[in-house]
């Protein structure tokens, strides 16, 4: 049986969802974030990076959610329903599978880090400086970057019900965690198509089962 090393409020929610879509039996080893929001040191005993998700299958130990999703699709998606076979939709699937972590997640993680500059464990005398620095970076650069990404995604979903086109795919699973983080920032009333996609995917029975197993698809925002 496959084993998913699952950290709460993490990318490993993607793997639970994928396995539920595939109806592949699995077991969960659960980990809880520390106050620092980092994974516990015990995860390093499973994989040297000490990050989730980690999947164990047939003696293999795999990390990186995109790589794991591709492995599960190639190994267990016998009818190929979770990845387009060829053409523009296959290329779109590939693009969004890599875009989620390669382009969208970095500014979202910067936004998360900036919210912590003005709070513990920073020394209390430096917290006002941290808050001012974070606010300046957001105004001068970060907010514009995130808006560009948000409108790019919204425009794509205005003509496509799913990220790879007409059909649900592993690209939607991969994008779920980053979209959750984007929407959690608030102030995106113009993202009607993103919100419509978000509501639509959460109606999938496999998504609901994954949430029951591992908790909501969200990024931690505070300690």
From TrEMBL:
SUPFAM superfamilies: GST C-terminal domain-like, Thioredoxin-like
GO molecular function, one term: glutathione transferase activity
Domain GST N-terminal: 1-80
Gene Ontology terms: cellular component: cytoplasm
EC number: 2.5.1.18
InterPro entries: Glutathione-S-Trfase_C_sf, Glutathione_S-Trfase, Glutathione_S-Trfase_N, Thioredoxin-like_sf
Keywords: Transferase
A Pfam family: GST_N
Residue ranges crossing the lipid bilayer per the database entry: none
Catalysed reactions, as listed in the record: RX + glutathione = an S-substituted glutathione + a halide anion + H(+)
Name of protein: glutathione transferase
CDD domains: GST_C_GTT1_like (cd03189), GST_N_GTT1_like (cd03046)
């Amino acid at each position: 049986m496959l084993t998913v090393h699952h950290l709460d409020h993490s990318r490993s929610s993607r793997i639970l969802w994928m396995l539920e879509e595939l109806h592949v039996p699995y077991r969960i080893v659960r980990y809880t974030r520390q106050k620092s929001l980092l994974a516990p040191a015990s995860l390093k005993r499973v994989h040297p990076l000490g990050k989730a998700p980690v999947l164990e299958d047939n003696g293999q130990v795999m990390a990186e959610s995109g790589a794991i999703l591709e492995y599960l699709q190639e190994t267990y998606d016998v009818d190929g329903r979770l990845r387009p076979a060829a053409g523009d939709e296959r290329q779109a699937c590939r693009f969004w599978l890599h875009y989620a972590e390669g382009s969208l997640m970095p500014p979202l993680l910067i936004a998360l880090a900036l919210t912590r500059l003005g709070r513990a464990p920073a020394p209390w005398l430096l917290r006002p400086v941290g808050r001012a620095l974070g606010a300046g970076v957001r105004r001068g650069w970060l907010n514009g970057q995130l808006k560009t990404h948000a409108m790019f995604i919204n425009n794509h979903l205005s003509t496509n019900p799913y990220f790879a086109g007409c059909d649900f795919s592993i690209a939607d699973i991969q994008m779920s965690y980053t979209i959750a983080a984007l929407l959690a920032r608030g102030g995106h009333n113009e993202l009607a198509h993103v919100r419509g996609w978000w509501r639509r995917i959460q109606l999938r029975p496999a998504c609901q089962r994954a949430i029951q197993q591992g908790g909501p698809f969200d990024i931690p925002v505070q300690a």
